[in-house]
Amino acid sequence: MPELNLPFLGHGGDYNPDQWLDRPDILKEDIRLMKLAGCNLMSVGIFAWAALEPEEGRYEFDWLESVLDDLHANGISVFLATPSGARPAWMSQKYPEVLRVRSDGLRNFHGNRHNHCYTSPVYRGFVQKINRALAERFGHHPAVKGWHISNEFSGDCHCELCQAAFRDFLKTRYGTLDALNHAWWTSFWSKTYTDWNQLRGPSTAGEFAIQGLKVAWQRFMTHQTTDFIRAEAAPIREVTPELPVTTNLMMLFDGLDYYELAKELDFASFDNYPDWGAPDEEWTALKSAFNYDWMRSLKQKPFALMESTPSQVNWHDVCKLKKPGMHLLSSLQAVAQGADTVQYFQWRKSRGAAEKFHGAVVGHSGHEHTRVFRDVRDVGEALEKLAGIRGAMPDVRVALVYDVNNRWGLQFCEGPRRDKKYVETLLEHYRALKRLGLAVDVIDETCDFNKYKLIAAPMLYMLRPGAAERLDAFVENGGALVCTCLTGRVDEDDLCFLGGFPGPLRRTLGIWAEETDALYDDEQNGIRMDGKEYACGTMCDLIHAETAEVLGTYARDFYAGQPCVTANRLGAGTAYYIASRPGADFLDDFYAAVTAQAGLETTPLPAGVQLARRGDFLFAMNFSGAPARVDLPRGTDALTGAPAGGETELPVNGIKVIRE
Ligand code: GLA
Ligand code: ZN
Q1: SS3 readout for 502-552
Q2: Which structural domain range is residue 374 located in?
Q3: Average pLDDT across the chain, whole number
Q4: pTM of the model
């Protein structure tokens, strides 16, 4: 498998020379500025189809060749993009089947981007043709170090071609209509299918009440998108088998199963746009860290930070500027957790259209005498000093299970509460682990559990085949497992487990969850444990401890005194159940105890301070909004060369990188 194998940490961004072809002076200036900013890696041509193929079959590649030549002559490498993220107007006009159809059956007009059918043979044909032409012309250009396939895959299409592909997908998956009808429980409301042609994707204008169908459609989207990616990449892989292929993935994205999609990629790439400067900076930093841990875990390899903004975005409700220090801190946060590149959207602000006020290295003023440019140059310098980190991975013993299939199941599930707060809950558990200075992988139910000592799997409502058995074995073999309310309700088709929840994890957890109460947002119960009382809310499972020991009980309501927190010793390990959604104070205390019990080494940190180790580099990062003190191991400051470590004061937005 070709690897992301750059001889440096990449620094650069999305570069759109196709917007400035009538301004050779600007293209020339770009090169000067890139070198000044310490940029060595540009992603070129992401939305350039109209410039590359202005009319059907007429390729205009000379401009791209001259851009690649200039970049290369100046020591700048390139991820070359395939242009399929947006298509030229002539194509939609002549071949409307390339456009998406909405779930109500209406076909979109030409416009926007990411608005194409993944099934259409016409679209696939155009994509393959131009990709082959690009690969043949530029695949061996010395500037080109990898392929950036399309852009941020997302969305679905309900055209008749996609419906037919969906039926094929279902036939492969279920074999017979009987099996499908059983898996989707279609005897409910007389929904039994008697002919494959009766099946369509879920639609608010049609079938919307079969959760099995909705989950199957989500999986089909992943299937069809990855099939499209395979088709996109085929000519490229044929012409340049040595070049790695990637596509850029999105924050906490739930439209596709990234664990499936990542199988098509040689390395993962990520676009990160946290709301830096929002009221709870610790939370923003945690979301960002969680995503990085997810990206690294997808392939258990370093990834590319393909996009981030050097200053502000233009699409948050309120677009804050990055405060002094934040650009370096947030960029190195990615490196700390496994990124081998720091890239931006975008190199230069476009002059018009939707993203003209999105942050960029070069603004409309066009020169380098700006705060943002200086910030970017500082990151360039830091990345040069950290080059020795390339390829290194952290040593991780703790995993958090974020399974997108489970998220779909929870989203579609009617009751006991519309918003189950799944993502918030995940991040709350993650926060407690990060506050202990632990390295965390973000895995799904199909990943290998063996290397971990502790697995936190909050709200694992949907258990995919084999997951419960493997979690059980994990505990038997000495692991610590943490589950919470709503665990083990349904199988992968959303059929409830019979015989008592948490279904196949009942023996592992040693409890039976008889009922689940839902609470209003401002309503709370409490957990009495170790002489303290902690608040909890959202949902409360009413559980019976079967073989588990009761550690904490509910404080209020008609189930006061009943178990809320339990521990079940099984084989050499322990499976914990938290039957509700407690706050940070509980989770901090709970994980301090559980990690100690599991023999994990922790470094308790002040709130908002993050620690990450990668190879022999240790990063201490202060997102707390106030100066912070931490005790760090001794070594050399990787950014200044001075001796470092011991009691260390981190200023607001401060970072210390110590090479041990
Ligand atoms: C996404 C896209 C980019 C750009 C940025 C703006 O990540 O991939 O093309 O639109 O958002 O933040
Ligand atoms: Zn379609």
Answers
A1: CHHHHHHHCEEEEEEEECCCCCCEEEEECCEEEEEEEEEEEEEECCCEEEE
A2: 10-102+110-156+221-389
A3: 98
A4: 0.98
